[in-house]
Structures are given as C-alpha cells and as structure tokens.
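note to self: dont lose this again. the chain is below, predicted strucutre after it. 399 aa total, dont forget to put it in the shared folder this time
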Amino acid sequence: MIPPRYFDRTSQRIEVKEKISEQIIASNREKEETLLPTPSPATTKPDKATKVRLNKTYGKLPLSFEANQGQTDKQVKFLSRGNGYSLFLAPTEMVMKLSHPLVYSKKDMDKPGQRTESRSSANVSAVLRMQLEGADPQARVTGLDELSGKSNYFVGNDPNKWRTDISNYGKVKYENAYPGIDVIYYGNQSQLEYDLIVAPGADPDSIKLNFTGARQINLNRRGDLVLRVGQEEVRQHKPKVYQEIDGSRREVAGRYALRSENEIGFEIAAYDHSKPLVIDPVIGGYSTYLGGSVYSDVGLGIVIDTLGRAYITGIAASPDFPSTSGTRWDTDYGDVFVARLSADGSKLEYSTLIGGIYEDDGYGIAVDSSGNAYVTGLTNSPDFPTLECLQKRAWQQRP
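---
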C-alpha cells in the first residue's frame, strides 16, 4: 500500500493571494494577438463540424500509459489520463482520481484571475483504489504496444526536474501478479478495461479485488458491480469470461462474487482447464464525472495545420498521486497543456504539460509552417518555466 502521506504539490503550498492585478490581465489579453504569430492562410481555426468530429474521435482514442520517469510518485509504474479521471498503476493497486466536471460562466472565462480562485475552491476529486489483494508486489510490470506519441513535463523553473520524451504504451501488463495469472490494463478515453488471464492449471479463486474509497458496493440485476464514490457511482460491467479454442471464442459463464464488505472475487462455471481463461471486466458508468461540456481538463484554444492535424491548448490536471489519508481531497491547480492529434484523430502525437505550483492556463495557440506551436496564456506561478521574460516582472507587480 502506498504510504499515507501527500504526494500532491498542494501539501507544499501556503495561502497566498491568487489574483493578478486587473491591469496586468487586461494588458496581457490586449497583447495576445501580437504575441501570437500570424497564422498562415493554411493554418485555420476549426469550424463547428470539425470540432464535433474531433470530440467524437477523441473519445475513441486508446488510453496511453506513460512510463513513470519521475513525473509522479516513485512507486507508480505507469500513469494515464482519460476524460474526467487520472489513473495510476502501482505494484499491487490501481488508483483512479475522478474529477467532477467544471462549468465556468462566461464571466469566469473572461476573468482568469477570478476563475483560478473559483476553480480551486469548487473542484473536488474522489479517489477509488482497487487493491490486488495477495498479489506479488515484485511482479514484472511492462508496457506493451508502444505508441508513437511522447509526453513532456516542463514543471517548475529547475531544468533538472523537467521530464521529456517519455514513452507511451497502449497496454500495461503485470506478469504473474498471482501465480499463473497476468493482469493487462488498456482502454480508451471513455472506459478502462483490465484482462485477468488465467494460465492452464492456475486458480481464478486466488483473485481478490479490494476496493477503498467507495462508501457502498453492491451488484445490480444485470450483474454489474456498482461502487458509490462520494455522491456519484462507478460501474464495473458484468465481466466477460471466455476461452480461445481452435481459433474461436467460447463464452464461459461467470460473475462477480461479494466475499466481504470491500472484497470482490469471481465465480466461474466449468471450463477447459487445459486452456487459458480470460476474465474481462470493463470499468465505465462514471457518466456524472464525464458529463457536461467542460471537464477538469479544459481545452481553450485549437488550430488546424496544413496537414489537418489539430493543436490544442488549455488547462490539465497535474499527475500528482493522491494521498491515502482520505478518499476525497481538493485537487491542485492545473497546468498548461499542449497536444497534437493526428489528422484522422486516431493518435495523440504528443502531449506536453507546462506549469508551476499554481494554476497556469493556455488560452491561444498558433502554428507556423514548420509545425511549431506557439501558446499564450496566464500564469499564477512564481516558478513557471521561463527564460527571463515578462512573467518575472508580472510577479513583481502583484498586489
């Protein structure tokens, strides 16, 4: 179990004034057009139909699992983000940090300083942990199906702490998490799946899933596992259980079994023990977290280049691992993100996080003929990564 202490950067923060003077904000917004390069005629803002297409394809993007290279707590092996949640894979547990959608008024969006204060007080996350009870903490954990996209983190003004060119994978495999049983995580932006692959002769009864962070756990009539997290619910659909025999899939009857208040196992009907068995639960149903038009990760600027690729900037939650001291906690401030999607929307080609200890927002983005992205926005962080520019002077003028 992860030690009970905060890994969140907010534990290192003290109360400070969060507003930058209106004069500085107004000045920055007036200069935004001149700071951004003038887009070439081939670099355009997307029309309504393009935005709708991008929204649909984004939901179908496979989850990308980042190898942990120091961007979060050292006990985390891989991390990922989907719509409304962050996912952390530690040696014997999966941790989901679920964020309520944030809905900003037009007034909030027009006054970033006020939105920072509103965001920090209103955005509360819930944390759900799934412990592989009795699993081997030394099990080999590897990324599978490496993706072309890379992740970068420019957080703080110390270049030694920046992390770049981080590999991403489509799946993460825990080899022999239980004797003869592998666990593989994968999914897309809207749902997470994990396969429990039982080798011939292995015992599926050894699988024990212990949940913390849920105030209530029950099974509905369809056999779905319903977990009440705060005022919301997360649903694990009834598991698909099958074997591949002679090139065809054969379904095996199976269901969840409530073994104690927080412990879940599986009841599996008779099957061929000489062949591998796959137990495939799907985690979904957190529609309240994913609903609405604005999430905790907010896209505020988008352009399309000459090849049809989409460049997006906005605010993203930082990859801070949640504390075990409680199941609900105030999230930290967000950072600027810059991402590029392939022309067909099937690949996240790169994703970069830029920020400091307080909220940092990306508002505008433009792209030159070489594919270089230029971003403007607002920072509240004294340690924002810069090269001796306006940011330092702005902080010197803070009230």
